[in-house]
């Protein structure tokens, strides 16, 4: 496998995603991994990647790998690739000099090769575009190193010591905006590390089922089921592992899309037995408690935590009515949820709390099972396809666990939910009708906390504003706003204005991620 050491970059998981994309197994560990952990894995590790990070290597408390561990890598001739902060750290620890640059490089920058390198094999184009995000730069190279690429500003953008198999990139090859980025990663993995393609989704299915079966033993588990692809895949894995000892709980929290409650049994029938759906699927009406607790709550982080805590309380209350003792709770947490919510592998910054990660109370009566927490959405869809899930489930646009509560900016009320639900339904219907649904990663309506003046039937109106959000993405870690055709936007706008009472203005969100997130809250 390839070992990735996390120094706090928001893109660390993208490195893992790209390596798995080329069918090579990898794991992420914190930068302060111990020498004993390294020794336990030395026979498996074919290469090391140092991630980027938000700090400066010359600062006192900057995250640094221990000299002992670095020497161990070098002594054992394990190839190392440093990316952004990782490159600066290698330069600093191996005797070079890193300084705060007079020129900052953010976003798209042109890069030229100055020497031939294994990293740039099969890349014939000079002057190609890469994604940069740094202020510091390596000014003086360590002894034995040479620069192999420079930016349009004359800064070192890549160095190497071919004999020691140590390489550094100032730019981010894992981000899709970098031209030839995947090829660079392939060159490191296959040409430098001599790794083989061995990671398959089928292996993940087999190992996950075995792990769940071993973990649960003779106990019982519940699965938080929403009807989306993530939770349905988790439920399917558990069903294959422990059968009737699984109980699925679908909570109608009043924050769902239109018709979700009605479709839940329909999507489970092809996979689960009728007796399971009759006896082991519990549909809970909890609308009142969720809406009561969200009343007058406008802070998005508070909303998420209230929803996460209430979900758990509903599960605990429901479990009391189930005869066997439930020991485990399974949920469809994905890697982007984890990395945005908290730093579990390194010093990355919290972006927002996901209800199923940071929103879970510290004192939990269940042991968590999260088989997908290191997978990305497209991997989960592939996993679901191998498990036999229908296209209706696999291709459904993602829906956040906190539901419409985080698409209502401001106070969440029954009336505002009804308004938003109708607008959201129209957007889904029209994008489906246009044939663009599978091309768009995610599309939805957002209800804004403002009202505007309008004219309807020669009368003045003062009503709500709805924003349309549509993005294209591969893994939800980065996203570009989708250029929906004007004719389609016009049709959506007209339908919402005419069919949803209380709305008189529609706007279109044209912000990418970053700097924005996909959801508004």
Describe the structure.
It is built from 16 helices and 18 strands. The chain has 521 residues and is α/β, with parallel strands linked by helices. The chain folds into three domains: 191 residues, Rossmann fold (3-Layer(aba) Sandwich); 194 residues, Rossmann fold; 102 residues, 2-Layer Sandwich (GMP Synthetase, Chain A, domain 3), CATH 3.30.300. Helix 12 links the parallel strand 13 and strand 14. Helix 6 crosses helix 7, helix 6 crosses helix 13 and helix 15 packs antiparallel against helix 16. The longest helix is centred in the C-terminal third of the chain and has 21 residues. The chain is globular and about 70 Å long. About 2% of the residues have low confidence.
Give the helix/strand layout.
Blueprint: E1 2-6, H1 12-21, E2 26-30, H2 35-41, E3 47-50, H3 67-75, E4 80-83, H4 85-93, E5 97-113, E6 128-140, E7 146-151, E8 156-161, E9 166-169, H5 181-192, H6 201-216, E10 220-224, H7 229-242, E11 246-252, H8 260-268, H9 274-280, E12 281-285, H10 287-294, H11 300-319, E13 326-330, H12 335-341, E14 367-369, H13 377-387, H14 391-394, H15 414-434, E15 442-456, E16 459-472, E17 480-481, H16 486-499, E18 503-508
Parallel strand pairs: 1-2, 1-3, 3-4, 4-9, 10-11, 10-13, 11-12, 13-14, 16-18
Antiparallel strand pairs: 5-6, 5-7, 7-8, 8-9, 15-16, 16-17
Helix pairs in contact: 6-7, 6-13, 7-13, 10-11, 15-16
């Amino acid at each position: 496998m390839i070992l990735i050491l996390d120094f706090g970059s928001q893109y660390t998981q993208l490195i893992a995603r790209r390596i798995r994309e080329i069918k090579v197994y990898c794991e992420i560990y914190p930068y302060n991994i111990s020498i004993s952990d390294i020794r336990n894995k030395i026979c498996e590790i074919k290469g090391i990647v140092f991630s980027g990070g938000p700090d400066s290597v010359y600062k006192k408390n900057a995250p640094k790998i221990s000299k002992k561990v670095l020497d161990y890598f070098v002594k054992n001739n394990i190839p190392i690739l440093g990316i952004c902060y990782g490159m600066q750290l290698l330069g600093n620890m191996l005797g070079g000099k890193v300084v705060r640059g007079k020129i900052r490089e953010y976003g798209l920058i042109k890069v030229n090769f100055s020497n031939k390198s294994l990293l740039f094999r099969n890349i014939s184009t000079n002057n190609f575009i890469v994604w940069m995000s740094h202020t510091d730069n390596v000014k003086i190279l360590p002894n034995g190193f040479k620069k192999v690429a420079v930016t349009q500003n004359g800064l070192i953008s890549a160095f190497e010591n071919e004999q020691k198999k140590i390489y550094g990139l100032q730019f981010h090859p894992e981000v899709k905006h970098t031209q030839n980025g995947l090829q660079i990663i392939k060159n490191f993995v296959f040409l430098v590390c001599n790794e083989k393609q061995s990671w398959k989704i089928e292996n993940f299915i087999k190992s996950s089922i075995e792990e769940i079966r071993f973990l649960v033993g003779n106990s019982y588990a519940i699965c938080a089921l929403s009807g989306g692809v993530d939770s349905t895949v988790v439920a399917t894995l558990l069903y294959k592992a422990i059968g009737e000892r699984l109980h699925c709980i679908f909570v109608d929290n009043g924050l769902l899309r239109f018709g979700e409650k009605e479709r839940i049994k329909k999507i489970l029938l092809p996979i689960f037995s009728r007796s399971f759906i009759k006896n082991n699927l519990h549909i809970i009406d909890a609308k009142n408690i969720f809406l009561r607790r969200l009343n007058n709550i406008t802070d998005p982080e508070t909303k998420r935590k209230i929803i996460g805590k209430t979900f758990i309380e509903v599960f605990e209350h429901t479990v009391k009515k189930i005869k066997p003792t439930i020991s485990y709770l399974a949920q469809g947490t994905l890697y982007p949820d984890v990395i945005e919510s908290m730093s579990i592998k390194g010093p990355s910054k919290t972006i927002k709390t996901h209800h199923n990660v940071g929103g879970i109370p510290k004192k939990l009566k269940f042991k968590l099972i999260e088989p997908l927490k290191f997978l990305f959405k497209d991997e989960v869809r592939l996993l679901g396809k191998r498990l036999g899930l229908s296209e209706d489930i696999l291709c459904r646009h993602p829906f956040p666990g906190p539901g419409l509560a985080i698409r209502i900016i401001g106070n969440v009320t029954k009336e505002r939910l009804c308004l938003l639900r109708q607008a959201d339904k129209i957007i889904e219907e029209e994008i489906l009708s246009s044939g663009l649904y599978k091309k768009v990663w995610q599309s939805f309506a957002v209800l804004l906390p403002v009202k505007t003046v309008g004219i309807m039937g020669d009368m003045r109106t003062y009503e709500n504003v709805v924003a349309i959000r549509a993005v294209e993405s591969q893994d939800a870690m980065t996203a570009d706003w989708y250029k929906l055709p004007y004719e389609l936007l016009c049709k959506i706008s007209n339908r919402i204005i005419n069919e949803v009472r209380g709305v008189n203005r529609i706007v279109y969100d044209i912000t990418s991620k970053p700097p924005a997130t996909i959801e508004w809250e």
